[in-house]
Amino acid sequence: MKTSEIDGFFADAGRLDPEAHLILDYRVECSGDPRIAAAHLCSEQSTAQWRRVGVDEDYRPRFAAKVLDLEVETELSGTSYLLDPPVSGPVSVCRVRIAHPYTNFGPRLPNLLSAVLGEGPFFAPDVPIIKLLDIQFPDTFLGQFDGPQFGLHGLRERWQIRERPFFFGVIKPNIGLDPESFAELGKQGWLGGLDIAKDDEMLADPDWSPIARRSALLGAARKEAEQATGEHKVYLANITDEVDRLLPLHDLVVANGANAVMVNALPVGLSAVRMLRKQAQVPLVAHFPLIAATSRLPHFGVHTRVWTKLQRLAGFDVVIMPGFGGRMMTPEDEVLECIAACVEPMGPIKPALPVPGGSDSAVTLPGVHERVGGADFGFVPGRGVFGHPMGPAGGAASLRQAWEAIAAGVPLATHAATHPELEAALKAFGPVG
Amino acid sequence: MKTSEIDGFFADAGRLDPEAHLILDYRVECSGDPRIAAAHLCSEQSTAQWRRVGVDEDYRPRFAAKVLDLEVETELSGTSYLLDPPVSGPVSVCRVRIAHPYTNFGPRLPNLLSAVLGEGPFFAPDVPIIKLLDIQFPDTFLGQFDGPQFGLHGLRERWQIRERPFFFGVIKPNIGLDPESFAELGKQGWLGGLDIAKDDEMLADPDWSPIARRSALLGAARKEAEQATGEHKVYLANITDEVDRLLPLHDLVVANGANAVMVNALPVGLSAVRMLRKQAQVPLVAHFPLIAATSRLPHFGVHTRVWTKLQRLAGFDVVIMPGFGGRMMTPEDEVLECIAACVEPMGPIKPALPVPGGSDSAVTLPGVHERVGGADFGFVPGRGVFGHPMGPAGGAASLRQAWEAIAAGVPLATHAATHPELEAALKAFGPVG
User: Fold this and answer.
1) What per-residue string of b and e applies to B282-302 under the rule 16 or more CB within 10 Å gives b?
2) Which of A52, A304, A361, A390 to mutate to test the interface with B (most CBs of B within 10 A)?
3) Average model confidence (pLDDT) across chain B
């Protein structure tokens, strides 16, 4: 690209219409002149060839993505990650802020993903290493999405869960158990104090546990548990399946008594979730398969905060995400950024309930509560409830008891002295991970 | 996990029913004992908790993923890629072959993705670095998918393209051009010798080029070009959009004269493509946004061969993929593996047409032909046709002339002496990249 051409891909933020542009923050490692690399990054994701042969025209003023800010952070002797084919010579580590005119594709999730994570950014000349760190949307764009139907506050209202976390439990064994036994475990969990008993993300509609049968049993068990406890109880059915089965399965499980549905967001596709959202009668819950394959490396791919925002935009009321602790291989800051992405202001889009998960039990509740800095979260043990030595009712009770201790400002161990379920949890799952 | 428990996640291939299992090949970097890490990898993607508390049962014999082969390739003092949080101490680099019983989820793409690329493999204890290198499906699994409707051979028949590559061209300028001018460019391309004039993957249904109008103009232009040339011509319309618009847009553009449709596979979702395939009247073409974010690093994420196989399984007749040359940042072996994944035997699933793309022109055709080792491929220049100094007709003609030279065993430069379009291409786009 010639110097005169590069300038067409740079702009002052003050001279662009903020309502017409998405703001994209990338970290890149680039070869050669960072200004040329940044121009390529814009060109390739928008007006790669901006004029016809033999015609005096230029589509860049209206349609080009443009660099608002380019900061060279440091120089390296090579890329952070060895590539094949290798990149020879020094690279500049840069932060690039880009304004992308969304008139290029409109308020559509697949086209958005194609623009900001497609061939443009990932095959721009001189930019072999790139990570999309953040994305911001103007209100004119957000206003064309539904977002969560209920949202965090709607869920508190709907399920009458006040001033405490939402207690989820993943029914286990997750794979292989017949529906009758599975429903009995769920019921025990609810009776012990779970709000939401859920299918594992790997359990959907297999021959050995058809979702029609399972949801009917769990739906009935849920209602019994509601009668017995006087509390709202939720059966969260995993309807992850082929796209053309989402709506029929939603209708089926809701008719059977499920009162929330889970979808593995990326495997099914965010756009399919947006479709489901238009018809959904119950809250939508996201699970996170496939995301880590794009996000784990600090300097390549997509930051999980971006996926969190997109899941909220697609219409999920609840976002289950990798949470705290070494087991989930996610830095604490990143978990907090994803939690913030669920609840921070986002134009007309409601806040979603964040559920940072991973090998939790009564033992880890104080740490999660402290890190989140409040009670606006979901807590989602699996074995911490369903592998509890006293069974699911004991496991669920241990969560409630742990919360009693936290709310009262008492150490878990103190409260455990008079609460055998909590005591058993501390013994089985402690010390704090 | 105890030693006695680890054994339940290992099996001899000869003792498992091959028709009941997917075969997964992972490369991992693991901490500690590789046998324990491999057992975790299996446990987490299948029967994470394989018995109820207080019940004597074991779901592993039927439902556990099992290690068939574990080979320690080398030891490293740390992970290949620096992680956050960092992994301390030595790691073992291993190849792990796993048999995964697909009864756990059935013949469903989202559930398959959740199993082989989900929380299980990407959050298995002691396995921070993992790449899914390959996947093999038994015929009982494949038999439940439609795969390509036409496939490579059906496309040759349908479009009467024999013993030569399929010549695609991406109409440029891709963003900003009005539909009338855009259609005129397409027509010039066809008249010059293109088989298939296509929308860019970033051009879908924006206000300034509504697909209804664009497809009507291109559909009409295509028919005129067919009459003028006596050849079959194809307008490949990009219907990438929200999932609930795929079928209506397919119907609209086909009624308007488009005779193939393109979908950005991962942004829309493979399952939505499988849905579209059931109704599609024309060939389906895949484009590759988002894939590189999972596949570029040699040792993390997903190998592109896996995505190629899954695109074929979902029903794409044509798979556009990053091709040869430094520009596309993909090793030559990997491109060849993806081409092989399109055409190699796959039970009842038809071969797809591979289209390795990236900054092509008449100049690069001999190199692509030689590397592919035959004519069973699509060739997809953008600027190589639509940025040709003599315009799109000249650009398209230069491709045909380059093929004439190859078929006659004559150097391009020799043939160019009597073919001005080829000569102009050599001058504008050469030397060979």
Assistant:
1) bbbbbbbbbbbbbbbbbbbbb
2) A52
3) 97
B201, closest residue in chain A (CA to CA): A114
* Tens-digit pLDDT profile for residues B98-108: 999 999 999 99
The helix/strand/coil state of A87 is: coil
Question: Cα angle at A213 between A208 and A214, to 5 degrees?
Answer: 75
Give A240's contacts in chain B (Cβ within 8 Å): 110-111, 114
- Residue B25's pLDDT is 98
Residue-wise pLDDT for A208-252, tens only, equals: 999 999 999 999 999 999 999 999 999 999 999 999 999 999 999
pLDDT of residue A433: 42
User: A181 lies in which domain range?
Assistant: 151-429
What is the β-pairing status of strands B260-264 and B66-76?
A: unpaired
Task: Collect all residues of chain A within an 8 Å Cβ-Cβ radius of residue B302.
Answer: 293
Chain B residue with CA closest to A289: the answer is B118
Assess whether A308 and A212 both reside in one domain: yes
What pLDDT does A432 receive?
Answer: 59
* B12–A contact, CB cutoff 8 A: no
Shared domain check, B254 and B177: yes
Residues B210 and B112 in one domain: no
Residue B82 three-state SS: coil
Does residue B134 share a domain with residue B52?
yes
Mean pLDDT taken over chain A? 97
Smallest CA–CA distance, residue A192 to chain B, in Å, is: 15
Same domain, A230 and A327: yes
Assess A401–B contact: CB distance below 8 Å, yes or no. Answer: no
How would residue A3 be classed by pLDDT, with cut points 50, 70 and 90? confident
Residues 62-81 of A with CB under 8 A from B: 62-63, 80-81
Report the alpha-carbon distance of residue A346 to residue B406 in Å, rounded. Answer: 57
Tell me the Cα Rg of chain B. 24
Cross-chain Cβ contact A82/B298 below 8 Å:
yes
Q: State the ipTM, two decimals.
A: 0.98
> Which of B87, B107, B142 is the C-terminal boundary of a domain?
B142
